[in-house]
Fold this protein.
Amino acid sequence: MSMQSSPEIEALFSERRDFPPPADFAAQSNARPDIYEQADRDFEGFWAAEAERKLSWVQKWTTVLDWQLPYAKWFVGGKLNVAYNCVDRHVENGLGSKVAYYWEGEPGDTRTLTYADLQREVNKCANALLELGVRTGDRVGIYMPMIPELPIAMLACAKIGAPHVVVFGGFSAEALQGRMVDAEAKLVITADGGNRRGKVVDLKASADEAVAGAPTVEHMLVVQRTGHEVAMTAGRDVWWHDIVDRQSDQCEPVAVDSEHLLYLLHTSGTTAKPKGVMHTTAGYLLGIATTHEYIFDIKPDDIYWCAADIGWVTGHSYIVYGPLANATTSILYEGAPDHPAPDRWWSIIEKYKVNILYCAPTAIRSFMKHGDEWPAKHDLSSLRLLGSVGEPINPEAWLWYRRAIGGDRTPVVDTWWQTETGMILITPLPGITTLRPGSATRPFPGVGAKVVDAMGNEVAPGSGGGYLVLTRPWPAMLRGVYKDPERYQQTYWSRYPGMYFTGDGCKIDADGYYWLLGRVDDVMNVAGHRISTIEVESALVDHPAVAEAAVVAKNDPVTGQAIFAFVILRSSAQPSDALAGELREHVGHKIGPIARPKQIMFTPELPKTRSGKIMRRLLRDIAEQRPLGDVTTLADSGIVETIREKAQSSQAEQLV
Ligand code: PRX
């Protein structure tokens, strides 16, 4: 088959409901329309100008970019401190009484931290770290619930130049241990527990188990959050209130080199050993502060809420460092979105008059499933901008989000990026870009991205799907995989010489809009057509009865692979054979007969990772009726068993 007649990935789904920026939004937007042209003309100059404007330097850099593929160094020769940039300088500039975080615990308790409060707490924590023997360059593990001490601990590390290694509080002892061993962490900061859906999560017990097998860890610093009884090991464990509270609230920031390691964050992946992604100081901070300002159109009085967990890169970049660098007021919420009822988020938005909400499609689809009545109970008129991240967002979910949450008024920015990219790379700018539901639109100013075929040839816009690659270095890019340069080279830089391989499928439409098609491993091959899972899922979610769908390929004697669809219905719809038939026809109608699922199974839930990504690998195991692979990264391992039993008992219920 020639490359011309058979695109890498078929791009069948077409979505054409455009939303130009509202005139009043465009008139006040932070980004001006010439930003693209300016950045394109000289991307190093663009970033250098932003670095002068946005960051405070102890020593200015001498070279903007030193690019020795695959290693980039940004702002070489510069010295600065991230915590100073995120906290101290705002207090010096008279913003001490501005709120940094409105925090809300799951049980309903609240705390408000101003920038001055944050400065005092960070300094005390930094001094406690010093007392516990942590020095510049030492790695510190952090395993905490979403409480104010989590960003405080991260900033305290940054203040003394000790890279942090945050591990999501929902991960197991085993996951924590592996990451602490990889990082050779000297100290672990944790809590007795956290609150999740009305229950106490016993973090300390997991941390104890993890640290037992992580010999480099000398101390554990423990925040008392829940107050339940926990074991403290004498000589090793220290309560936060015993050591932090008695420290001085003054601490000199350590000026570190631009390329000093700020943190490691392990990407869990679905199969292989997690990679310790390395992010450094100046370029990272600049990349996220700049994208945060332009993409979320941040204004001094905005109340901004990124509803991710800080344990993921989204939280590192867009709850902690980006918003704080921009002196933003943020919401921090400890618990589950549906506790005690599915309108918890909407009540928070109403209470704090949130202006900007940034969350994941998985959350949006689950709210869609609960129905419009939950957001309708609340006044959400303070919202002026919505964002989405983490997965492709189905056009129907995008439209629901804009309508039911954004009151048919707010732009929705669908932002594409990765743990490795550190910052958002493909995204609309809400005052400039005409939005197209389901598309992340185009690369951020100064970012180089294109779509190539298997041979590395560029796929022309409008002609089909291929692989998304990045063609220029960007300031927040990862600087390597910790202690594994070969894996860094192999994973990202070996597939196409000179280009960063994202691992994502993508198509660019005739108007230059980028459509992310999911991970390349998720592409299905049906009768010789390579079809991306997201397109079929979007066609299913386009049907009014469907809230969420996941499709996988199942081996098929006739077509090579056939499409097996797992479908979650909205609460208003009932499963039936007739509906399954209707859904098949709907997909056939939306994208073509080739994409019609051969089997449809109705299910109440889908197996997801703890960050909300659907684990298609397990759904493939279920579809093939084979034993399940590794389930340790699942958020809820019960779900997969339920689906499997259902699939077995009915031999895939709706055999069409
Ligand atoms: O497949 C893409 C998907 O999430 C992957 C990165 O996951 P992670 O490192 O966990 O970071 C998530 C938060 C940045 C990408 O390779 N992804 C992320 N955002 C989008 C997306 N897919 C489509 N559209 C998006 N907006």
Q: What stands out?
A: Confidence is low (pLDDT under 50) at residues 1-5, 651-656. The pocket of adenosine-5'-monophosphate-propyl ester is lined by residues 267, 313-314, 389-392, 414-419, 440, 502-504, 516, 519, 611 (CB under 6 Å).
